[in-house]
């Protein structure tokens, strides 16, 4: 049985791989189990590691440090790539308000952390760990630990605080949503309210009866009209065609137009009359509308198109087709000439069968090629992220230069590459499954190491008076900011309850609470609000955890 002892207990590279893999497997398995309708998912790996550490399992310290660091880097970089495409667009009109409210949650929690540290005597590193657990934000914990290591301060205690506060952090946001719903929300507040979404397309049919646009080209009319629109089909004298920008409109022409729903009234005035047919039903067979044209979805897979503007391809004029919509990451985008294409975009193309075959050759439509992620960008991004994280920045009032570290550098580079990569013709596309795999692998490695390291002292910490104090502080850091900002958003600013709930879940990086909100609140407003505020809040919590320690301890 010596081989079994060597496999699990004798420190070696092989033993480290076996132990961390076993902890991850057990944690991921138990993470699928629902307790009172809530599951912890990959986070259960953290608690599996704590149990393993408590019962004396350990790995070589250098191997532990390597696996923990590498797992954290993979996770935060993949996270940056994922949120990058929507990071800057989240600051548009509707998103600014939600992001400011989410920012208030983050800053209020940070302020309460500092106040609680001075009021209770709990050290700031421990309080930062409690804050990370209360906000269910393990990347921020990794950033805090890296900062403490740079400063030569013991870095293991924040993990204990995070572990103690984490369970309450998961259920605390749900409790906050329940409290707001119980005391503030009426039945009519739960009715689905349509949100303005600049990305959401709407299809409408119009008839040309406005003399002001008779005998004018579509290009000239587009310059006259403020609302953006795309004319997908034009019917005249019983024939259907794909209109080019030079097409001249005549009285009585019927147009199928793709635009935003808020623009329909303005376009009705522009064209003259809107038809009553509902063109937005999901079961419409577009190929049965007319016999001359077909509609097909084509995927952009040619690398040289990555980062190019749709209008620069001149597909409508060269091939006589029209692109009505673009699907990207589950979102419909209006196919305007200024739209910058990315690998993986799915374009709805309308035209004759032969023309669509030619366009298919131009765009690629080789779906198989998208299933192979571009690993070059992954590794280059990690190198750039670590290089950025190692650069010291001098900030007035802080004696020690600030470094973004293993968490801050990679997440910033990931966001920048995810956002601007296509514009410099860098292929940053990864399939959703590939990105989820990278994130889950990195986070599992990181949490397994974190739990294993904290496990030896976890129960000693919990079952003593200061452990109960930590739990109470964590509950306060979760519930107070969310309830207070949620009250302001719902009662004073009159934001719908679904968006408020999603904003609170996103500001606390809490997908478990989002699942609860989605299950109990009709419509998709919680998910939209969550996606709007999540990138900024995730980024800020990683950076604030480092700056807070350096500013107050440096």
UniProtKB/TrEMBL annotation:
Residues 188-273, 281-365 form the RCK C-terminal domain. It is found in: Cell membrane. It comes from the Bacteria. The chain crosses the membrane at residues 12-31, 38-57, 69-88, 100-119, 158-180, 375-398, 404-424, 436-456, 468-490, 497-517, 529-553. Keywords: Cell membrane, Membrane, Transmembrane, Transmembrane helix, Transport. The keyword Transferase does not apply. SUPFAM superfamilies: TrkA C-terminal domain-like (SSF116726). It holds the Pfam family Asp-Al_Ex. Belongs to the AAE transporter (TC 2.A.81) family. This is Putative antiporter. Its main location: membrane. It is a multi-pass membrane protein. The keyword Transmembrane applies. The lineage of its organism: Bacteria, Pseudomonadati, Bacteroidota, Bacteroidia, Bacteroidales. One of its GO terms (cellular component) is plasma membrane. GO terms for biological process: potassium ion transport. PANTHER family: K(+)_H(+) ANTIPORTER SUBUNIT KHTT, TRANSPORT PROTEIN YIDE-RELATED. GO terms for molecular function: monoatomic cation transmembrane transporter activity.
């Amino acid at each position: 049985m010596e081989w079994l002892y060597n496999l699990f207990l004798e420190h070696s590279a092989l033993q480290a791989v076996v132990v961390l893999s076993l902890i991850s497997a057990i944690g991921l398995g138990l993470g699928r189990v629902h307790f009172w309708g809530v599951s912890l998912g990959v986070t259960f790996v953290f608690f599996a590691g704590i149990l393993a550490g408590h019962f004396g399992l350990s790995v070589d310290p250098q191997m532990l440090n390597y696996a923990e660091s590498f797992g954290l880097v993979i996770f935060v970089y993949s996270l940056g790539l994922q949120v990058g495409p929507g990071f800057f667009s989240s600051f548009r009109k509707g998103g600014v308000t939600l992001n400011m409210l989410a920012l208030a949650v983050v800053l209020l929690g940070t302020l309460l952390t500092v106040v609680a540290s001075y009021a209770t005597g709990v050290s700031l590193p421990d309080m930062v760990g409690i804050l990370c657990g209360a906000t269910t934000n393990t990347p921020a914990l990794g950033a805090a630990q890296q900062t403490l290591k740079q400063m030569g301060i013991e870095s293991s205690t924040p993990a204990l605080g995070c572990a103690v506060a984490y369970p309450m952090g998961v259920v605390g946001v749900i409790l906050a949503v329940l409290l707001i719903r119980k005391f503030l929300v009426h039945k009519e507040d739960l009715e689905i309210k349509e949100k303005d979404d600049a990305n959401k397309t709407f299809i409408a049919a119009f008839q040309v009866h406005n003399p002001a646009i008779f005998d004018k080209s579509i290009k000239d009319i587009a310059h006259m009209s403020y609302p953006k629109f795309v004319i997908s089909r034009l019917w005249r004298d019983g024939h259907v065609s794909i209109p080019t920008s030079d097409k001249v409109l005549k009285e009585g022409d019927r147009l199928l137009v793709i635009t935003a729903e808020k623009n329909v009234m303005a376009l009705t005035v522009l064209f003259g009359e809107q038809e009553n047919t509902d063109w937005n039903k999901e079961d419409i067979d577009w190929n049965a509308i007319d016999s001359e044209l077909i509609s097909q979805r084509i995927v952009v897979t040619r690398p040289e198109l990555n980062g190019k503007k749709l209008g620069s391809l001149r597909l409508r004029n060269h091939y006589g087709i029209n692109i009505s919509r673009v699907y990207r990451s589950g979102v419909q985008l209006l196919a305007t000439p200024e739209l910058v294409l990315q690998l993986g975009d799915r374009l709805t193309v309308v035209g004759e069968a032969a023309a669509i075959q030619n366009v298919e050759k131009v765009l690629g439509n080789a779906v198989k090629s998208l299933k192979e992620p571009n690993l070059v960008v992954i590794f280059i991004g990690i190198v750039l992220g670590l290089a950025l994280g190692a650069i010291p920045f001098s900030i007035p009032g802080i004696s020690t230069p600030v470094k973004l570290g293993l968490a801050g550098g990679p997440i910033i580079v990931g966001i920048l590459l995810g956002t601007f990569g296509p514009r410099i013709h860098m292929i940053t596309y990864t399939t959703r499954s590939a990105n989820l795999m990278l994130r889950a692998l990195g986070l599992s490695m990181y949490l397994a190491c974190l739990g294993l390291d904290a496990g030896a002292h976890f129960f000693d910490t919990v079952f003593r008076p200061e452990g109960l104090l930590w739990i109470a502080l964590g509950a306060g850091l979760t519930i107070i900011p969310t309830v207070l900002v949620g009250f302001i958003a719902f009662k004073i600013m009159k934001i719908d309850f679904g968006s408020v709930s999603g904003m609170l879940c996103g500001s606390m990086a809490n997908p478990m609470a989002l699942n609860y909100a989605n299950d109990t609140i009709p419509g998709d407003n919680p998910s939209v609000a969550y996606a709007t505020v999540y990138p900024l809040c995730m980024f800020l919590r990683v950076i604030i955890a480092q700056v807070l320690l350096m500013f107050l301890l440096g």
